[in-house]
């Protein structure tokens, strides 16, 4: 008779895989490593995640839920679109300065697997597309145009790939750029 998995087994496996994938990269981590760190059997792992791609997609969906939660909290008390845009950039700046930060999980996956169109790549691309759309929306509501949105998106990409010591500069730069698009230049 087959044993019933302990409650939370799927979450335990996913948490183990997420830590490994984030630290070492999806390509570098084998399913045997996930089994070892999760403390489960191979059959149990494959019962919950029939393939590495499904496990990677679940990892990126978990990362998205965590990012969405963090961003929502950062935007919670911001009212005007300019404040919300600055809060969004500030939240990213804080994220990249955290100990153990190893890059954006979504960008990391797409860098590891360029040109892929599997489920994890779709999760990553959707997240990045949704984030870009949020920047575009906030810029438009702030009175800015597509060029300003492009500039801010470049700053966001720079935050994720640049030295954490420059994160505050990015936040200040966005704060300077947004009012200038409406003609609110200060001298």
Note down, in words, how this protein is organized.
This protein is mostly helical and 187 residues long. The chain folds into two domains: 8-50, Arc Repressor Mutant, subunit A, CATH 1.10.10.60; 64-181, Tetracycline Repressor, domain 2 (Orthogonal Bundle). 71% of the residues lie in helices and 0% in strands.
Task: Sum this structure up briefly.
With 187 residues, the protein is mostly helical. It has two domains: 8-50, Arc Repressor Mutant, subunit A (Orthogonal Bundle), CATH 1.10.10.60; 64-181, Orthogonal Bundle (Tetracycline Repressor, domain 2), CATH 1.10.357. The protein contains nine helices and no strands.
Unreliable stretches, pLDDT < 50, 5 or more residues?
183-187
CATH class of the largest domain: Mainly Alpha
- Biggest beta sheet attributes: none
Task: Say how many strands there are.
Answer: 0
What is the overall number of helices?
A: 9
Give the CATH architecture of the largest domain.
Orthogonal Bundle
């Amino acid at each position: 008779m087959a044993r019933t998995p302990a409650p939370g087994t799927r979450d335990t496996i996913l948490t183990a895989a997420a830590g490994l994938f984030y630290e070492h990269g999806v390509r570098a981590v084998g399913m045997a490593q996930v089994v070892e760190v999760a403390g489960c059997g191979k059959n149990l792992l494959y019962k919950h995640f029939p393939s590495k791609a499904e496990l990677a997609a679940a990892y990126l969906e978990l990362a998205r839920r965590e990012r969405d939660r963090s961003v929502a909290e950062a935007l919670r008390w911001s009212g005007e679109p300019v404040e919300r845009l600055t809060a969004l950039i500030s939240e990213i700046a804080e994220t990249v300065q955290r100990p153990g930060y190893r890059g954006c999980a979504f960008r990391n996956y797409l860098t590891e697997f360029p040109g892929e169109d599997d489920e994890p790549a779709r999760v990553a691309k959707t997240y990045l597309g949704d984030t870009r759309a949020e920047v575009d929306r906030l810029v438009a509501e702030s009175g800015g145009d597509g060029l300003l949105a492009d500039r801010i998106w470049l700053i966001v990409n720079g935050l994720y790939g640049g030295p954490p010591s420059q994160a505050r500069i990015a936040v200040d730069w966005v704060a300077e750029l947004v009012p200038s698009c409406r003609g609110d230049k200060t001298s």
